[in-house]
Specification:
The chain has helices at 7-23, 29-52, 57-60, 74-86, 142-148, 201-211, 224-260, 262-270, 275-307, 309-316, 331-354, 357-361, 373-394, 397-402, and strands at 65-70, 91-99, 108-112, 125-129, 137-141, 155-158, 161-170, 179-181, 192-197, 214-217. A hairpin with an 8-residue loop joins strand 2 and strand 3. The protein has 403 residues and is α+β, with helices and mostly antiparallel strands. Strands 1, 2, 3, 4, 5, 6, 7, 8, 9 and 10 form a 10-stranded mixed beta sheet that branches.
Length: 403
């Protein structure tokens, strides 16, 4: 054991620490539970941020821009949309008419989306039934179907014309949107058109100048990506403060575990283990517990997001794939759990390494007057918390809006 750098001694020490963990696994549950709960909360927050800040390109496929036009003359809208589509190799044309029926509390739209998107865009998703095959047929969003008290096979009046409902659809980017989808020829008097295209900025600028349309970047790299980065950074900052608190709690747990194993550490020291090896034995236990707690926390966060998928979709008002989970909520949070456990085991490891062999064999508590370091750390963390609350209050959007 004297040869600290000897691989055989390191393997022997690791096997001893793992065997001790397996034999006394019940005493580790508190530390593992604390780390698991903290990592679960942090990873769940990352999943929510991932879904709340999804870019527009998640629903527009490989299209880079959306060209929009609005005119009170339906013929000019149709002609303008056709001219824009002819200016590009591939284009998805969607005509729209806003309807405000008398006596109804909410307006709705009638649209004519393309049957097959050239860019893999999914702006209208079929939920039940079939798509319209010709004039006189329509599909309704769930919210509009509930308002009209209609289902598949019903006949409804839309903008003064009768349509047979052949299916139910939804806009995965905005689940509560109220709309009906029909074939282009059956759309009565469209007043708006949107065209998804894929092209460079220079070509889009020329189209905007010559075709009198408005352009919107669907890549979302200018607006949505910074929002995602800010959300992720906020989650990591919150997780860091949370893990500091958990590490302080884990320190007490590791101290109790070290006191219970004091005789075992004394035997290691009597057999020739150095202080560094004793510290390594404590840190190996922290490393193992951190890996277990971090992996369990991430797994619980992912399983929870799958189980509560419908609730999350209702919260973010968007549909998402069940396996669309953020990569940044996996490995980094497991590493964060490991660092938390290592931080919690640091002070007990120092205490075990400094304890005389005779006192360790007798399982005596470490002597000396209690220091004020713990109180100092607690006061510092409390002050940081108060400072964070003050900064958050001063920089809050609501406060800025009232000035």
């Amino acid at each position: 054991m004297k040869a600290t750098n000897d691989p055989r001694s390191r393997r022997t020490l690791a096997r001893w620490a793992l065997r001790l963990l397996r034999r006394e696994w019940r005493s580790q549950l508190l530390v593992v539970g604390l780390i698991t709960v903290a990592v679960t909360l942090a990873a769940t927050g990352a999943v929510l941020v991932h879904h709340l800040t999804r870019p527009a390109s998640a629903f527009t496929g490989s299209a880079t821009h959306e060209l929009r036009m609005h005119d009170d003359d339906p013929a000019r809208v149709r002609a303008g949309a056709a001219e824009v589509a002819a200016s590009f190799d591939d284009a998805d044309v969607t005509l729209r008419r806003a309807v405000e029926p008398a006596g109804r509390t909410s307006a709705y739209s009638i649209i004519s989306p393309p049957d097959v998107s050239a860019f893999g865009a999914e702006t209208v998703r079929l939920v039940d039934g079939s798509r319209p095959a010709g004039p006189g047929q329509a599909t309704l969003s769930r919210s509009l179907a509930d308002t009209l008290d209609a289902g598949i096979g019903s006949v409804v009046g839309l903008a003064g014309e009768s349509f047979e409902v052949v299916g139910l659809v939804e806009n995965p980017a905005e689940l509560d949107e109220r709309f009906a989808a029909v074939v282009p020829d059956a759309l009565p008097e469209p007043h708006q058109a949107s065209v998804l295209v894929r092209s460079d900025e220079a070509t889009i600028d020329r189209a905007v100048r010559t075709l009198d349309v408005d352009s919107r970047d669907t890549d979302g790299l200018e607006d949505e990506l910074p929002i995602q980065l800010i959300g992720v950074a906020q989650i990591y900052v919150f997780s860091a403060f949370l893990m500091i608190e958990v590490a302080l709690l884990c320190t007490a747990g590791f101290a109790v575990l070290a006191q219970r194993r004091m005789r075992q550490y004394g035997l290691l020291a009597a057999l020739g283990a150095t202080r560094r090896q004793l510290r390594t034995a404590c840190h190996l236990q922290g490393l193992t517990l951190g890996l277990v707690g971090g992996a369990l926390g991430v797994a619980l966060a992912y399983l929870g997001s799958l189980a509560a998928r419908s609730l999350v979709e209702e919260l973010v008002n968007q549909r998402f794939d069940r396996w669309d989970l953020p990569w940044f909520a996996a490995v980094p949070f497991v590493v964060l759990g490991v660092l938390t456990a290592l931080g919690g085991s640091w002070w007990p490891a120092q205490t075990v390494a400094r304890l005389p062999v005779v006192d360790a064999l007798a399982a005596r508590r470490p002597g000396g007057e209690p220091s004020g370091r713990t109180s100092t750390v607690a006061v510092a963390v409390a002050l940081l918390g108060v400072l964070g609350v003050v900064v958050g209050f001063v920089a809050s959007p609501g406060r800025a809006a009232t000035k």
